[in-house]
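Complex record, two chains
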Amino acid sequence: MTALGKLFRTTAFKLTLIYLVIFSVFAVFLLGYFAWNTRRLITEQIHQTVDAEITGLAEQYRLGGIRRLVLVIDARTRRPGFSLYLVTTPAGQGLAGNVGSLAHGVLDTDGWSETEYRRLDESEGSRHGALVRVFQLPGGFRLLVGRDLEERERLYDIVVAAGRWSIALIVVLGLAGGFFVTRRVLKRVDAMTETARTIMAGNFSGRLAIAGTGDELDRLAENLNAMLERIEALMRGLKEVSDNIAHDLKTPLTRLRNRCEQALRTSRDEAGYRAALEATIEESDALIRTFNALLMIARAESGQAREDMGNFDAAEITRDVAELYEPLADEKGLMLSVDASAAAPVHGNRELVSQALANLLDNAIKYVGSRPHVVNGAEADIVVKALNDNDHILLTVGDRGPGIPEADRGRATERFVRLERSRSEPGSGLGLSLAAAVARLHGGELRLEDNHPGLNAVIALPRAEPPRNDA
Amino acid sequence: MRLLIIEDDRDAAEYLAKAFREVGHVADLATDGEDGLGLAQAGQYDVLIVDRMLPKRDGLSVIAALRTEGNETPILILSALGQVDDRVKGLRAGGDDYLPKPYAFSELLARVEVLSRRRGGRTEETAYKVGDLELDRLSHRVSRNGEEIVLQPREFRLLEYLMKHAGQVVTRTMLLENVWDYHFDPQTNVIDVHISRLRGKIDKGFAQPLLHTVRGAGYIIRDGAR
């Protein structure tokens, strides 16, 4: 496509053309109206003066007969101007006036007519347009009074010429303006396209230029930049995740392989092989669990799990999950207390919310460790609550463990992030990510707060509408 | 026990059939939906193991066809899709149990055995007895050697499930699904702790333990005499 062709194809240029046509039509109409009205006005004026003159001349005739009329007309014809006069006998013979010749038959009928004439003092063959009135005087004499139309035609010509020029000007200016605007827009759009192309080619840090005028293109560029920002963040996240997956899966896979190799190399009896195989199965089970957790998160994040959502009481879930983990806490010498008496209606996926809460509780039990010091017997080490907070339901797991340093809290919910201390603990490093993904799926969030001391993990979910009676 | 395995991955199917034969069961194979349906209609099987995605005819449609014919053979669905709604879909189509891939053979075996046993008595018993341990489902009472044992509601359900399948291996996942109704994996083995608590109540102080751990598989409750 040529540059010019590209230009003509732009929306801006098409709009320019449309406006150009509209304005031209408007200008033609306006000037046409003006010209027509001017012409009408002049004609009217001629009518009036001619009528007045005829009345005056008829009066002269009445007072002094044909002789007086001829004298008056002779006097008037001597004055320069555009007035035409002619007095004829009933037979049509000219008695006075400045008209040399007239179109045939004009004098025969009374009233107004537009005709061509030659002035008496002009050479044969010249012709002018005139508006004349023929008046029958008593006694058969005819009086013709008229005006040359040259003035009117000249004015008309001026208006028409002005119209032509202005339309030409509109077209030229319009086209030039359109061309200029289009080229400017096209230049910026081309720059955007160019940037987009480099971004598509893989340079995700590229951004669209912003002119700083705050116009619609700037706004578009700003929004596209924001979108690019998001895409870049997602891409980075994706890359990080795949790197982490590669790392976190490669490590156990390598371990698995090494163990098998070692068993082949060193085991001499069945017991040795058996132990190695059992360890291998355990290791692969852990891998499967990691995969399952990843799939679960992906599912929660993609919003697929929205299909099987229903209303349930989060307080009941809290009690159930706490009950599931209570023996585990007990075994580690931790005291787990539950505060979930008030109903906490939530619309969502019961299974996922249960799992999210289970993960938080699992973490709490894991990281509090066995009781570090004897605390006041009344205080529990881990407190699980389901609370109503205006339009939100808060499911909280508070512990008295080491907590998470403020700086690490944001990172803690990322996939596979296991803060330094926890590297030694078993687990996939996906627990908090899943809890966060589940909270987001339900339109809520996962908050990690300071429990002074310890960690208070909060899953905030929107409170479900109270069930309607008719439902 | 006679099994029919409908699975398109020939290696996996052969492996399964071999493993089932090793533990003393008879296993037939079909590698697509049409063959599978034909075999299931013709033969008398105790349990069908059906993969969800099959060539020629989808696993769920095979199940639906069998169920409309009035074939009540217990069916276990195997699937690479492991999400909750897939499981629900499978069970709704007429499957009796659902196991996502990859699975441990011990898990599959335990589930298949529970399914095959279920076929005999559809009517549920009101009381279970294993050795000198007795559980009354109506009065919610548990006693051993005539002595009453006080259990928490969840412990009661756990024991009830174990005793209902007395003599059969029950896996941790089965317990989590049937006693707690959870279908996710609680990373730490919380079930073990519940079992050890239960064990403390029903076996502690008795010479003959009834609740046994089966390594690499799960738990079994049985009269030690066997």
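Note: The domain at 307-462 of chain A is CATH 3.30.565.10 (Heat Shock Protein 90).
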